[in-house]
Design a protein that fits this description.
Helices cover 42% and strands 23% of the residues. The chain is of the alpha+beta class. It binds adenosine-5'-triphosphate and magnesium ion.
Amino acid sequence: MRIVTANEIHLWLNQGHCIEQDGRGPKVVALADGRLLKIFRPRRRLWLSRLRPQARRFADNATKLNTLGIHTPEITDLGWFDKKLAASFCLYQPLPGETIDKIYRRERERFMALLPGLACFIRELHHKGIYFRSLHLGNILLLPEGGFGLIDFLDLRLKSSPLSRAMIRRNLKHLRNYLKRSCTEDFPWSKLLQLYAEAENDSPNRGK
Ligand SMILES: Nc1ncnc2c1ncn2[C@@H]1O[C@H](COP(=O)(O)OP(=O)(O)OP(=O)(O)O)[C@@H](O)[C@H]1O
Ligand SMILES: [Mg+2]
């Protein structure tokens, strides 16, 4: 994997616009040419991330999701951002669309109309054996042509068969916890579960 030069980092960070950051620095930067730069800084087990860089995992996950028919951004480049810290980066074209989170906060009626489709999409992920640990509204995009796509899929497990009931419960709990953390107590959670169950009943091969 290539190591990015100090000059390149300087240009990216100075000419780009930071979309997300934390105490350790920028996490997602919109570059001047329209691409997005995502920086991965592992907190633990740096040795593991050196052997298997997070940017590589991210790009591999994008390929696997695409193979399963799930839309993701197209990764165009990856490399080391700071090898000593096992920090790596990916460059990608943004997936056109808006996060569900934004729609939920700004256009409640539109969000309610999307809920059945969203329940089906989550069910589709589970049915395809996709266990997306960061399942939440900020990581699901509504695509301009309709349908949904995923971003932020570093933590992913893929099973060769539909997820078991226990895994589905655990995954839905991630979403529930996210909603609690982001103070969305009025979220139509029971409705989503009901729609999910309906989608499940319609599906030919149900999870065990
Ligand atoms: N491929 C993409 N297409 C469109 N917008 C994107 C894309 N990737 C990131 N974004 C925007 O950047 C925001 C943050 O991106 P992302 O979810 O990848 O990082 P993060 O949430 O900061 O990461 P983490 O969940 O690891 O803390 C998203 O909510 C979205 O607005
Ligand atoms: Mg995110």
